[in-house]
Amino acid sequence: GVAVPHWVGLSAVDGVPTGVARWPDVDAPVRPLEEQQVRDELFGAALEQGLAHDAAFVAMSGTRLVDLDDHGYRDAQLLAGLVEGRLHLMAYALGAAASGMTFRDSDLESLLGEDVAGLLWTCVGVPEYRTRRSGGPGSPADVTIVWPR
């Protein structure tokens, strides 16, 4: 573990109650909510980006800035990044996907139940499409245009 607080917006994780939980206590959410309310609040706080709404869970790191000097803030950002990087690796290893997400700081207190400055959000879930292997150096894979420009 790391010394940076993390919360998890849980909306579709088998065997885990829906709501917003403080890691590692995911079985006892600090804000127990119905699935649709979790999705709607994450969607709003993520500036109405669909990934936050559709994810099985969203990991959110945050900290109280008054507790940190400049060096401590950089450490907190680094540690949050390490956690989120591990989430990306875990997601892909299990056949899911992960994506970083922007968010509105002013929504965090009501969402998380604590007044913290947000550091990093990561949405984890099953994507609409599967990624494919890319080509090697000098021999890129064929690209399929999904939406014409």
Provide structural commentary.
This protein has four helices and six strands. By secondary structure, it is an alpha+beta fold. The chain has one domain (6-125): NADH Oxidase (3-Layer(aba) Sandwich). The protein has a six-stranded antiparallel beta sheet. It is globular. The chain starts with 5 loop residues before the first strand and ends in a 24-residue tail after the last strand.
Please render the helix and strand layout as text.
Blueprint: E1 6-10, E2 19-22, E3 31-32, H1 35-45, H2 50-54, E4 57-63, H3 70-93, E5 97-101, H4 108-112, E6 117-125
Antiparallel strand pairs: 1-2, 1-4, 2-3, 4-6, 5-6
Shape-level CATH architecture: 3-Layer(aba) Sandwich
Strand content: 15-25%
Instruction: Summarize the amount of helix as a percent range.
Output: 25-40%
Number of helices: 4
Task: Count structural domains.
Answer: 1
User: What is the number of beta strands?
Assistant: 6
* CATH topology value: NADH Oxidase
CATH homologous superfamily heading: NADH Oxidase
Element order: H for helix, E for strand: EEEHHEHEHE
The side-by-side strand order for the widest beta sheet comes to 3-2-1-4-6-5
- Which ranges are low-confidence, i.e. pLDDT below 50, for 5 or more consecutive residues? none
Alpha-beta classification:
alpha+beta
Radius of gyration of CA atoms, rounded to a whole number: 17 Å
CATH class: Alpha Beta
Mean pLDDT: 92
Separation of termini? 44 Å
**Main beta sheet strand tally, sense and closure:** 6 strands, antiparallel
